[in-house]
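In response to reviewer comment 3 from the previous cycle, which asked for concrete evidence that the modeling workflow produces usable outputs, we include below a single protein chain processed end to end. The sequence was submitted unchanged, and the resulting structure tokens are shown without manual editing.
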Amino acid sequence: MLRHWLTQLAAVLVAVGLQGCATGGGGATDTVPIEPVDDYRIGAGDTLQIFVWQHPEVSVTVPVRPDGRISSPLVEDMVAVGKTPSELAEDMQVALSEYIRSPNVSVIVTNFVGTFDTQVRVVGEAARPAAVPYRQNMTVLDVLIAVGGLSPSAAGNRARIIRRANGVEEEISVRLKDLLNKGAIAENVVLRPGDVLIIPQSLL
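The workflow returned the following structure tokens.
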């Protein structure tokens, strides 16, 4: 199974390389527009490194609890979910100012999970169905690698992406089997935060 998956991946990477060579002559090429992504929003399950300048006694690494809050020395039960690291740092500076003069706080996310709208969820016949943290320019192939590829019973060419934007639901068909086995780069769709990739089971 592992050898088969590696063979599929190698075929796709070779196809990507060939496509890059074919379009590298400086002529006009069709490209998929990349939309800018807002700053990362903290989600439940993230791990945060909180650094307070010149105050190591209150500098800690903490998890974001399922209720979306964190607890650290001198600051209890602060909401973290939905904030950017810089927004959380500003809120912690306000809270710590009751105990420390002009605190300087930095927040770094060291383990990314993210909110639901900053994930790409893979359901159905993936080797390891999962919610994958979104990153800029992420494609279907990136997500397939993250979840270990297709399961043996997957109907890869009947997969679809469910995308919701401005209250409207869009369904995009994607032929994952052709992408993996034939290097069909046109099927390597650029994903957006909040997309759901559904991989049905083969009827056979």
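Strands lie at 47-52, 60-63, 69-72, 75-79, 105-111, 119-124, 130-133, 159-165, 168-174, 196-199. We consider this sufficient to address the reviewer's concern, and the full set will be provided in the supplementary archive.
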